[in-house]
Amino acid sequence: MEMKQLPEKMARMTPQRRVILEALRKSGNHPSADRVYELVREKLPHVSMGTVYRNLETLAEAGMIQRLELGPGPRHYDAGIKEHYHIRCLQCGKIEDTLVELPSGLDRAARIKTGFQVVGHELEFVGYCPGCAKNIGKIKIK
Ligand code: ZN
Ligand code: MN
């Protein structure tokens, strides 16, 4: 969900949160909480999964990271908070950034057409990543 909303409150930056944020940044992709947990444990061996999960949620609610709810399966997180769109592989679940830019004024156009007070929009590209597309003959298209 791309929302034009400013974070309501910055989350307090505890040492634990800093490690979590760093792990998310370094992961370079769009990890699930499980993956972030693995990375954080390299620095904080005694941290619990629940703690990592709660901190990710707090950071997301404060607008300091992005929560991605794309497709089936667990949520993913993104250290990138600038508006950008994702593409998801329907076979392996990989999520990548696209550099696709949309025409501006979409929200306004939707408001004019519907009368809704539009606060944002969701857009996800889906397809098969290059690795999976090579095996396309073996893929059962749902
Ligand atoms: Zn794939
Ligand atoms: Mn991203």
List keywords for this structure.
single chain, 142 residues, 2 domains, two-stranded antiparallel sheet, 35% helix, binds zinc ion, binds manganese (II) ion
Task: Tell me the helix content.
Answer: 25-40%
Number of domains: 2
Rg over CA atoms, rounded to whole Å, is 17 Å
- Architecture (CATH level 2) name of the largest domain: Orthogonal Bundle
Cofactors, ions and other ligands in the entry: zinc ion, manganese (II) ion
Beta content: 15-25%
Short description:
This protein has 142 residues and is an alpha+beta fold.
Could you walk me through the main structural features you see in this protein, from its secondary elements to its overall organization?
It is built from five helices and seven strands. The chain is of the alpha+beta class. The chain folds into two domains: 1-81, Arc Repressor Mutant, subunit A (Orthogonal Bundle); 83-142, Dna Ligase, domain 1. The protein has a three-stranded mixed sheet with strand order 5-4-7, with no helix packed on it. Strands 1-6 form a two-stranded antiparallel sheet. A two-stranded antiparallel ribbon has the order 2-3. The two termini are 25 Å apart. Manganese (II) ion is lined by residues 30, 78, 80, 84, 86, 97.
Q: How are the secondary structure elements laid out?
A:
Elements: E1 2-3, H1 15-27, H2 33-43, H3 49-61, E2 66-68, E3 76-78, E4 85-89, E5 95-98, H4 106-114, E6 120-121, E7 124-127, H5 130-133
Parallel strand pairs: 4-7
Antiparallel strand pairs: 1-6, 2-3, 4-5
Helix pairs in contact: 1-2, 1-3, 2-3
Bound molecules: zinc ion and manganese (II) ion (MN).
Manganese (II) ion (MN) binds at residues 30, 78, 80, 84, 86, 97.
